[in-house]
Amino acid sequence: MSARRGNLPVDGGRLWADLMALGTITEPDRPYTRRSFSPLFLEGRDWLAKRFAAAGLAVRTDAGGNLIGRLDGARGDAGTIMIGSHSDTVPAGGRFDGVAGVIVALEIVRSLRAAGRRLDCAIEIVDFLAEEPSEFGLSCVGSRAMTGRLTEAQLAYRDPAGERLDQAIRRVGGDPARLAAARRDDIVGFFELHIEQGIVLEQNRIDLGLVTGIAGIARVEIVFEGRADHAGTTPMDLRRDAGLAGAMTAAFVAEAAGEAAAGGNGHFVATTGIVEQAPNAANVVPGRARLVVDIRAEDHAATERFLAALDARSGEIAAACRVERARWALLSDTDPSPCDAGLQALLSQSAEALGYSYRAMASGAGHDAAFMAHVAPSAMVFVPCREGRSHAPEEWAEPDAIAAGAAVIHDAVLRLDAQRRQNAAEGSDAG
Known about the structure:
Blueprint: H1 12-23, H2 39-54, E1 58-61, E2 67-71, E3 80-86, H3 99-114, E4 122-128, H4 141-146, H5 152-155, H6 165-171, E5 187-195, H7 200-203, E6 208-214, E7 216-225, E8 229-230, H8 242-261, E9 268-278, E10 284-285, E11 288-297, H9 300-320, E12 324-333, E13 337-338, H10 341-354, E14 358-363, H11 368-372, E15 378-383, H12 399-430
Parallel strand pairs: 3-4, 3-5, 5-15, 6-14
Antiparallel strand pairs: 1-2, 2-4, 6-13, 6-15, 7-11, 7-12, 8-10, 9-11
Helix pairs in contact: 1-3, 1-12, 3-12, 8-9, 10-12
């Protein structure tokens, strides 16, 4: 990699120290766990709020339960530049997923203040509530609220203990009765740093990934019903093997996804992530099989073609195996979220100016930026992570890599602010 170690506009050592410190707030026997809405999550939030305040930011929790630190700009009409991610984790997760984006945002603001730079734009840093799938069965709770996509039905979701989501949001400082107040229309640019959660950057020794878009996600449930029979006495040509139908469908998913990925339509992957069969005994022909297929694509048209092919082929497989396709259900289908071309251009200019290598790439994982793209120009920067590991205690990114991403976003923020200033001046001249 070409990442530089010195002369950065951010303090990499201070950034790293804060990142490691927040990682100590975890379940001791299950590092690194800080589940949304839990006491440890609130302890981490309190730690962040104090850091935000120490950096000179006005700190608040909005109606959607997002922790926000704000520094007003020199011009009240210049809009807001927002940077951030999330501080909650999956169970036994890592110290970098989400958290790095929040600490990077904090370090950018501290570095701007240390350099005496006051932007025309206001700048805000955000820790979104519950980006990871929560105990309420919902992810990206805070960014959904900020973009007007948290519904009344979702607010009624309950966790295993019976608490409603709206009650939990209120418990962490939000105000679900005033969700409309959380929605934003003043953000002129949103930036999010994240570890790649893949091996492309590391294997190709590239410093940074500039995200072109966040893949849409579709999930399909397929259930085959056959007949359970004795495995030793039922002839092969008389079986109604639901397990075989499931296996053939899973093989088709992998083959068709490979073809779609090679078809020139951007990022495309599909996974048969759940496979269940019953009775699930060594000496019984399976009478029932259930599959859940996860499809992620940068181009929604590619998802639609894949779904149509999977529908047709799973029906053919059922007939060939003499079983019934008892269920075909589209569980969810979210559109891809393209990142803003203008912000991508600023990030590439910043990377080149600072001497970092980069490549354009799509994100196959979901992020808060996907929701923010509905209300503001949004962009993401990926940094390499060791062996692509994520959502595990072994998750790791090098200090220099995170500092590189922070430096590039810092520079892009200055470029965006200057761009806004120039546009305002040209508008004034025209008037």
